[in-house]
C-alpha cells in the first residue's frame, strides 16, 4: 500500500496544530514532516503504523515521528461514530537544537522511540482526555506549555509498547525546500488573491512545471490545496468567533461567496451554519 505525502500548514500564531477530528476517519495511508500524537476519543477499527497492523479502540494514544506512514480505518461510517484529538508539531518547533538540552533528555528518548510508533497504556490516555478541552481552547503559549508537560509525563512513563519492529520512515520522499516556500506563502497570504503565476514565481518555475511539481509532491493540485487550507481557517473562525459566514468567506480569500459555500461543503460535508452549530454543541 503506497503512502501519500501530506503537507500540513501550521496556524500563523502557533508552532503546533491541535484539532478534534470527527466523522468516519478513513483517510488513505499517509505521512507528513511533523510529529503526531493521536488520541481516540470515540470509535474503533484498524490502525496502520509503518509495518504494523492492529486494532484501535476508544482511549488509544499513539505517538509517531515525522515520516512514519499511518492510517486509522474506522469500522463504522455513521456520522459522529469516530472522533480523535490530534496534536502535531515540527521537529524544530522550539528551535533547531532544543532536544539537545539536558532538560529535554527524557523527551528526546521518547521521540527517538516514536520512529517505530509508540502506543501508551489506557490509563495514560485518560489523562489526555481530561485535558482535551484545554488543549483545544487555550491561547498558543499556554497550549505549548501544556504540550511540553504532556510530553514530559509520557517520557517518564514505562507503560507503553513499540508498534513496529524497525524504524519505518519515508524521509527520502519528503519534498525539498521549494514546497516549503510555497506552503509558507499560502499560509501567510491565503486571505488574499493567489494566482498560479505568483506561486510559480516564488520558486523560479514556469506555471506548467510548477503545477506538475506541486501535484506530484502533495498529491493534489495547488488550488485544491489552497481551498482546503482556506476552508480549514474558515472552520476555525466559525468555531472561535461570532463573525457571520459571509464575512468569514471574504476573510479567507474568497471573492465569490457561492464558490466559498461550494468549497466549504466539499471539504467539510456541511454548510458553514451547520458546522458552527455542531462546534458550539461540543
| Estimated radius of gyration | 19 Å
* CATH C-level of the largest domain: Mainly Beta
Estimate what percentage of residues fall within beta strands.
Answer: 15-25%
The arrangement of helices and strands along the chain is EEEEEEEEEHEHHEHHHHHHH
N-C termini distance: 35 Å
| SS element count, helices | 10
> Which spans have pLDDT < 50 for at least 5 consecutive residues?
171-175
Number of domains as seen in the coordinates: 2
Named at the architecture level, the CATH assignment of the largest domain is Sandwich
Task: Assign an overall shape.
Answer: globular
Furnish the topology, listing elements before pairings.
Elements: E1 4-5, E2 16-22, E3 30-31, E4 34-42, E5 45-49, E6 52-56, E7 61-64, E8 70-74, E9 83-90, H1 105-113, E10 118-120, H2 122-137, H3 140-155, E11 160-162, H4 177-189, H5 196-202, H6 207-218, H7 222-240, H8 245-251, H9 257-268, H10 272-281
Parallel strand pairs: 1-3
Antiparallel strand pairs: 2-9, 4-7, 4-9, 5-6, 5-8, 7-10, 10-11
Helix pairs in contact: 1-3, 2-3, 5-6, 7-9, 7-10
In short, what is this structure?
This protein is of the alpha+beta class and 282 residues long. Helix content is 43%, strand content 19%. The radius of gyration is 19 Å and the shape is globular.
